[in-house]
C-alpha cells in the first residue's frame, strides 16, 4: 500500500511541475492582465516592436556588456533563466510584470482567437491530415517559440547568462546585419499585422451576411459599415481604452466556442464519420495548412512576453501547456465541427448554425469581438511604420508623427485614417476569408514561425547544438519553405478561381 501511495505522490509531483505555479501557490496582487504594449504602462496585449525602448533600460539590472543579468551558469538551450536580478529591468518595475497564467492567457488569446471559426473548413479540405497538422504545427511552433527566446540570451565573460537582445528584430539584425535583418522581419511583421486587420474586416462581412442573407445590405457594404466603427483607431495613442473590452469579448468568444461545441455534440448521432477524407487534395490541402499555420503564429510578440514574466524560468512550461491545450481544443473543434456539417461546412462555422435567432446572437457577438480585436494589430502595425519612416531627421527621411506636446500631428492622424481605409479596400478586393487566411499563413506565417527562428537559432548557437537538434531544425526549415511555396501558389490559384465565381449569397464580384 505504501508503495502505491509513494508512486501516486511521485506522479502528482511530475504532473504539477508542468503546470503554472499559480495553480498551487498564492500569487501576489496582479494588476496587469496583458503583455505590455505601446507608450504607456497600461498599453497591452501585442508587442510594440519599439526598438527605442532599449534606451530606457535601468542601468541597475544590466551589466557592462548591456545584457540583463540573470545570474548563475544556466544553459542557453535549457529553461530560460529566472529573473531574480534586482532593479526594474527592461520592461518596467516588478509591479508591471505578469504571472505565468497571464502570459499563458496572452499566448492562448493569440493562437486560439477569432480565426478558430475557420478550422472546420480546413478539415473539410484537409481531412485527417488537417487534424494531424493542427497537432504537429502546434509542436513545431512551441519549439520555435522556445528557441527564438533562447536567441535573446548570451553568456558574458564571467559565464553569466545575460539578455542582450529584446526583440525579434534585434535577433534578425544580429544574424543578417543591421541593413537587411531588421527590415526583413519588420516587413514580414507589418504584412502579418495588416493582413490580420484585413481578416477582421472580412470576418465582419462574412458574419453579418451570414446572419442576414436576405437583407438589402451585401457583404462588401457590411465591411464598409464595420470600418466606420474602426476609424477612431486612428486617434489611439495607447490601448488602455480597449484592452479590457477586448478581454471580456475574448471571454464571450470562449463561451461561444463552448456553445458551438455543445450544439455539435447534440448532433452526435448524425455525425458523418465517413465524410472525413483520408487522401490529400493537392489543390486545397496547402490552403488548409496555411490556415493552420496562421492560427498558431505568436512568435512576433514572444520576446516581449517573456521579458514581462515575473519568473522567466517558467516560460518553457507556459508554452508547453498553452500549445498543448490549443492543439487539443483546435483539433477537437475542427473535427467535431466538420462531422456535424460535413460537405456543408462553411468558411465561418457559425454560419452553419440552424436557428436564425441563435445564429444572429452568436455572429453579432463575434462581430463585436472582431471590432475590439482590430485595434491591437492595427496599433502595432502603425507603430512599426512610424518607427521605420516617421521618427524625424536624421533618423528617418520624414518628420516625427508627434508634436512637441506628444500629441499626434494632423497629417499623422490623416495617414492613420488612410491605413484603416487601406485595410477596408483590401478586404473588399479579397473578400474570401479562408483563402486569404491560408495565403497569409503560407507567406508570413511559415517565415516567422518556421524558417527564421530555426535559422537564427542555428546561426547564433551552432557550436552549442547537438546534431539531432540541428537535424530537427533543418527539417523544420525545409518543411516550412516547401509548405510556404506550395501554399502561396495554390492560394493564389484559388483566389484567381474565386474571382470567376459568385460571392456568398449571390453577390457578384
UniProtKB/TrEMBL annotation:
<keyword id="KW-0812">Transmembrane</keyword>
<feature type="compositionally biased region" description="Polar residues">
    <location>
        <begin position="71"/>
        <end position="82"/>
    </location>
</feature>
<feature type="transmembrane region" description="Helical">
    <location>
        <begin position="410"/>
        <end position="428"/>
    </location>
</feature>
<keyword id="KW-1133">Transmembrane helix</keyword>
<feature type="transmembrane region" description="Helical">
    <location>
        <begin position="128"/>
        <end position="153"/>
    </location>
</feature>
<keyword id="KW-0813">Transport</keyword>
<feature type="transmembrane region" description="Helical">
    <location>
        <begin position="246"/>
        <end position="270"/>
    </location>
</feature>
<keyword id="KW-0968">Cytoplasmic vesicle</keyword>
<feature type="transmembrane region" description="Helical">
    <location>
        <begin position="361"/>
        <end position="389"/>
    </location>
</feature>
<keyword id="KW-0532">Neurotransmitter transport</keyword>
<feature type="domain" description="Amino acid transporter transmembrane">
    <location>
        <begin position="97"/>
        <end position="491"/>
    </location>
</feature>
<protein>
    <submittedName>
        <fullName>Vesicular inhibitory amino acid transporter-like</fullName>
    </submittedName>
</protein>
<feature type="transmembrane region" description="Helical">
    <location>
        <begin position="467"/>
        <end position="492"/>
    </location>
</feature>
<comment type="similarity">
    <text>Belongs to the amino acid/polyamine transporter 2 family.</text>
</comment>
<dbReference type="Pfam" id="PF01490">
    <property type="entry name" value="Aa_trans"/>
</dbReference>
<dbReference type="InterPro" id="IPR013057">
    <property type="entry name" value="AA_transpt_TM"/>
</dbReference>
<feature type="transmembrane region" description="Helical">
    <location>
        <begin position="190"/>
        <end position="209"/>
    </location>
</feature>
<feature type="transmembrane region" description="Helical">
    <location>
        <begin position="221"/>
        <end position="239"/>
    </location>
</feature>
<keyword id="KW-0472">Membrane</keyword>
<feature type="transmembrane region" description="Helical">
    <location>
        <begin position="323"/>
        <end position="341"/>
    </location>
</feature>
<feature type="transmembrane region" description="Helical">
    <location>
        <begin position="282"/>
        <end position="302"/>
    </location>
</feature>
<feature type="compositionally biased region" description="Basic and acidic residues">
    <location>
        <begin position="40"/>
        <end position="68"/>
    </location>
</feature>
<feature type="transmembrane region" description="Helical">
    <location>
        <begin position="434"/>
        <end position="455"/>
    </location>
</feature>
<feature type="region of interest" description="Disordered">
    <location>
        <begin position="35"/>
        <end position="93"/>
    </location>
</feature>
Amino acid at each position: 500500500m505504501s508503495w502505491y501511495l509513494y508512486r501516486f505522490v511521485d506522479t502528482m509531483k511530475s504532473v504539477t511541475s508542468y503546470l503554472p505555479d499559480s495553480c498551487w501557490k498564492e500569487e501576489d496582487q496582479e494588476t496587469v492582465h496583458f503583455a505590455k504594449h505601446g507608450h504607456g504602462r497600461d498599453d497591452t496585449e501585442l508587442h510594440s516592436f519599439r526598438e527605442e525602448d532599449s534606451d530606457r533600460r535601468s542601468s541597475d539590472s544590466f551589466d557592462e556588456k548591456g545584457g540583463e543579468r540573470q545570474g548563475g551558469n544556466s544553459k542557453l538551450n535549457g529553461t530560460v533563466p529566472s529573473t531574480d536580478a534586482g532593479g526594474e529591468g527592461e520592461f518596467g518595475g516588478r509591479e508591471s510584470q505578469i504571472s505565468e497564467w497571464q502570459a499563458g492567457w496572452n499566448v492562448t488569446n493569440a493562437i486560439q482567437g477569432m480565426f478558430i471559426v475557420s478550422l472546420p473548413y480546413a478539415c473539410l479540405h484537409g481531412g485527417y491530415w488537417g487534424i494531424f497538422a493542427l497537432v504537429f504545427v502546434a509542436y513545431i511552433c512551441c519549439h520555435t517559440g522556445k528557441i527564438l527566446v533562447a536567441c535573446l540570451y548570451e553568456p558574458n565573460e564571467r559565464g553569466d547568462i545575460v539578455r542582450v537582445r529584446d526583440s525579434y528584430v534585434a535577433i534578425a539584425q544580429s544574424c543578417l546585419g543591421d541593413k537587411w535583418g531588421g527590415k526583413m522581419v519588420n516587413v514580414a511583421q507589418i504584412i502579418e499585422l495588416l493582413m490580420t486587420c484585413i481578416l477582421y474586416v472580412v470576418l465582419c462581412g462574412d458574419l453579418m451576411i451570414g446572419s442576414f442573407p436576405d437583407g438589402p445590405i451585401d457583404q462588401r457594404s457590411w465591411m464598409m459599415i464595420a470600418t466606420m466603427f474602426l476609424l477612431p483607431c486612428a486617434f489611439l495613442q495607447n490601448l488602455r481604452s480597449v484592452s479590457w473590452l477586448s478581454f471580456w469579448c475574448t471571454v464571450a468568444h470562449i463561451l461561444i466556442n463552448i456553445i458551438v461545441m455543445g450544439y455539435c455534440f447534440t448532433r452526435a448521432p448524425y455525425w458523418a464519420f465517413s465524410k472525413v477524407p483520408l487522401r490529400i487534395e493537392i489543390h486545397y490541402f496547402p490552403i488548409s495548412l496555411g490556415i493552420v499555420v496562421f492560427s498558431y503564429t505568436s512568435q512576433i510578440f514572444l520576446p516581449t512576453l517573456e521579458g514581462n514574466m515575473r519568473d522567466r524560468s517558467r516560460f518553457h512550461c507556459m508554452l508547453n501547456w498553452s500549445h498543448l491545450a490549443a492543439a487539443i481544443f483546435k483539433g477537437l473543434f475542427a473535427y467535431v465541427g466538420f462531422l456535424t456539417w460535413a460537405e456543408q461546412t462553411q468558411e465561418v462555422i457559425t454560419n452553419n448554425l440552424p436557428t436564425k435567432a441563435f445564429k444572429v446572437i452568436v455572429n453579432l457577438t463575434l462581430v463585436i469581438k472582431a471590432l475590439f480585436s482590430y485595434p491591437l494589430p492595427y496599433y502595432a502595425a502603425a507603430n512599426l511604420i512610424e518607427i521605420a519612416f516617421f521618427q524625424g531627421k536624421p533618423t528617418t527621411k520624414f518628420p516625427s508623427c508627434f508634436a512637441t506636446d506628444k500629441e499626434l500631428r494632423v497629417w499623422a492622424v490623416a495617414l492613420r485614417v488612410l491605413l484603416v481605409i487601406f485595410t477596408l479596400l483590401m478586404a473588399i478586393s479579397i473578400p474570401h476569408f479562408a483563402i486569404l487566411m491560408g495565403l497569409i499563413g503560407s507567406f508570413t506565417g511559415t517565415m516567422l514561425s518556421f524558417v527564421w527562428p530555426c535559422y537564427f537559432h542555428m546561426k547564433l548557437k551552432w557550436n552549442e547544438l547537438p546534431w539531432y537538434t540541428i537535424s530537427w531544425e533543418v527539417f523544420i526549415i525545409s518543411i516550412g519553405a516547401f509548405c510556404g511555396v506550395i501554399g502561396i501558389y495554390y492560394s493564389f490559384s484559388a483566389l484567381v478561381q474565386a474571382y470567376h465565381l459568385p460571392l456568398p449569397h449571390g453577390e457578384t464580384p
